[in-house]
Recover the amino acids of this structure.
């Protein structure tokens, strides 16, 4: 059967759709497949029976129902090529209009992205709940102790109140980091417009963090030019710089050195523009290569116990990544176990 016995309009509509569409003739053969369908299934499908094209029982039943009972239906269809599996939601519609009668239309909608977003949201809520549950459980224990065994023991009371203050501090840091992240998501498409001097931002961050670093016996060194202008949001860039230095101080060697360096790049190949690179290097143990790509995930920590003990929420680097993305910049992490870590942030020059 030829496509030409169908109205031109029907063919044009099928061809114009962006989703993969298959029009089956009354004998169940592919009468028309649009470009997207050819891309997914191959061009061999023209004229083939739907049974050999689809080959998934979950989809065959609704197609049969459409042919033999004239009932519309829905099905899931998964298509895998290599390691990637794509999920489609398929609408099966029997056509009744004169000229198209006896035919069935299949429209495939790619829903794998939606699935990822849904499961990411679920993971996120589970992570947040878990992060809050730990300090809350600790707080409950402290309160019970204060009301019971430590009731008449001022020294123990003081110690427990100190621990409680730490837990409360952790919870408020977590909540404010989450607020920062959600604000950043809202701003993701809005490019910052101020002109910011990275040298000043860096100087301020170092000044702010040096007293704490000194206590930990860590020296912060700065190397770079007299100015480094980028288009940016000053407060956010301050967060980037201080998050990276803070990590260097926390996870680096004690005693040790955190080196920061600003370097000009005449033409950054990916940005295709001149740029500034900020490198923050520590001389700590670094991390094994398998952790590197995951460090910017929310709540990802290599050594959860150690990070928690230092008041970390595991959100620092994911905030950095969001900010860098908003600035249309790039970020890379280089680390080898035992060799320290270097985080490089590249921002387009103003
Ligand atoms: N300089 C570094 N050296 C070794 N490991 C690091 C370094 N920086 C980060 N990490 C690892 O990456 C993890 C994630 O870092 P991130 O800054 O996102 O979270 P955090 O420091 O644990 O908490 P937060 O920054 O929210 O206080 C850390 O828990 C740590 O395991
Ligand atoms: Mg951190």
């Amino acid at each position: 059967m030829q496509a030409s016995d169908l109205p031109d309009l029907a063919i044009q509509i099928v061809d114009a759709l962006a989703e993969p569409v298959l029009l089956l003739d009354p004998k169940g053969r592919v009468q028309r497949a649009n470009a997207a369908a050819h891309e997914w299934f191959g061009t061999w499908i023209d004229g083939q029976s739907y049974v050999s094209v689809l080959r998934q029982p979950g989809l065959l039943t609704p197609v049969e129902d459409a042919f033999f009972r004239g009932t519309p239906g829905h099905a899931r269809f998964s298509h895998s090529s290599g390691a990637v599996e794509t999920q489609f939601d398929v609408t099966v519609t029997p056509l009744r209009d004169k000229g198209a009668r006896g035919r069935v239309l299949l429209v495939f909608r790619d829903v794998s992205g939606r699935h990822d977003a849904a499961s990411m949201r679920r993971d996120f809520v589970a992570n947040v709940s878990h992060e809050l549950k730990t300090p809350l459980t600790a707080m409950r224990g402290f309160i019970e102790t204060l009301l019971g065994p430590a009731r008449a023991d001022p020294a123990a009371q003081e110690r427990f109140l100190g621990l409680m203050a730490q837990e409360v501090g952790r919870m408020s840091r977590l909540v404010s980091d989450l607020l920062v992240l959600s604000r950043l998501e809202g701003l993701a498409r809005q490019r910052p417009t101020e002109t910011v001097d990275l040298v000043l931002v860096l100087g301020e961050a170092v000044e702010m963090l040096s007293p704490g670093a000194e206590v930990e016996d860590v020296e912060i060194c700065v190397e770079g030019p007299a100015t480094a202008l980028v288009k940016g949001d000053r407060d956010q860039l301050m967060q980037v710089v201080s998050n990276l230095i803070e990590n260097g101080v926390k996870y680096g060697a004690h005693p040790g050195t955190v080196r920061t360096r600003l370097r000009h790049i005449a033409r950054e190949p990916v940005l295709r523009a001149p740029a500034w690179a900020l490198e923050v290097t520590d001389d700590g143990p670094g991390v094994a290569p398998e952790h590197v790509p995951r460090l910017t995930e929310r709540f990802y920590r290599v050594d959860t116990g150690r990070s928690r003990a230092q008041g970390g929420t595991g959100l620092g680097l994911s905030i950095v990544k969001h900010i860098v993305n908003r600035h249309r910049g790039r970020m890379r992490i280089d680390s080898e176990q035992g060799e320290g870590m270097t985080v490089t942030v590249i921002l387009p020059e103003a």
User: Anything to note?
Assistant: Residues 112-147 form the longest helix (36 residues). The two ends are 63 Å apart (CA to CA). Residues 113-187 form a domain with the Helix Hairpins fold (CATH 1.10.287.130). The mean pLDDT is 90.
